[in-house]
């Protein structure tokens, strides 16, 4: 029955296109502009909607108001499907490995690790729930999973993207407070408040989706232009898509820019003060060279984090706002792939670049006991370093994950960054 229905729909669609072409030629032969000749009639639109009443099978795209459907070439869809599956596998393995490593290795448990775990969980859910349907969409060039999943999948997609952005912003704020307001750090980052911050990230992100899920500010429905389920206009013509994309990008972007600008200024000022009080001679020159090298390493770290944020989220934000009618399908596919890439690139940016986390990965992959992991500042046991020296540890990924004063940054950076 499904095969017969599919054949009937295909025949109807071909007939519809032929009728449109004939009507257009007939109107041109009369040399009189007939607006209705280039628009499908109400009966045709009703018939097209009737074709998609089956919740389980949707195989023929409905023409938009201009009677056209965006064309996605087969090579583009094949490349997008392969890329999505690759990102999904890498994201699942990378995020799961990160969570297990952080939970099993006590030495790397700190404030930033709590936010990184939340970020990895959000990215893992994104890879497990959203990306399989995204790959299916590229393979079949349509949505064929029913109305219920058509509401749940975009809810999870938008919600998890919001959680990821908010967690990144929280990590940035953590770095800023630790570097610029050291005296407030221990008062703010207590277990209770850390839990509240993480709950806030998840509650705000998914809470913003409730009006759309209930149909009060747009609806979750099938987008025939994008061939996937997304936020569509409701019966009053309202949609939250543009507002959500602008809020999700602009606010975290402003937080990251402001915090990192302040962090860089504080670190730079601290190094200048150290140069002024350094002893004269070759020792001073050596310290200045180290300081310049450390400053460049910190700059590259900050630049890499911020550029990865822009690379993943800026394209989809611009495309959604500027090309809402999908006039350029290729740009939409590329923008979605970059958005999907954020789910597997975050562990690389925030975890892999940290030598301590790399050791934690080795411990998990080689099935070693966590107590054998050496995660002290110089990579040795506590017996080789004083307890005071061990407190000056600063993580590469967050510039400073544990309380440390600015004066301690250059020496540590030379050992670890």
TrEMBL record:
Record-annotated membrane-spanning stretches: 76-103, 110-135, 155-173, 193-217, 243-265, 298-318, 330-352
Protein topology in the membrane: Multi-pass membrane protein
Annotated SUPFAM superfamilies: Family A G protein-coupled receptor-like
G-protein coupled receptors family 1 profile domain boundaries: 94-350
Keywords: Cell membrane, G-protein coupled receptor, Membrane, Receptor, Transducer, Transmembrane, Transmembrane helix
InterPro entries assigned: GPCR_Rhodpsn (IPR000276), GPCR_Rhodpsn_7TM (IPR017452)
Subcellular location(s) per record: Cell membrane
Transmembrane among keywords: yes
Any one GO MF annotation of this record: G protein-coupled receptor activity
Pfam families (UniProt xref): 7tm_1 (PF00001)
GO cellular component, one term: plasma membrane
Similarity comment: Belongs to the G-protein coupled receptor 1 family.
Protein name: G-protein coupled receptor moody
Source organism: Lygus hesperus (Western plant bug)
Gene: moody_7
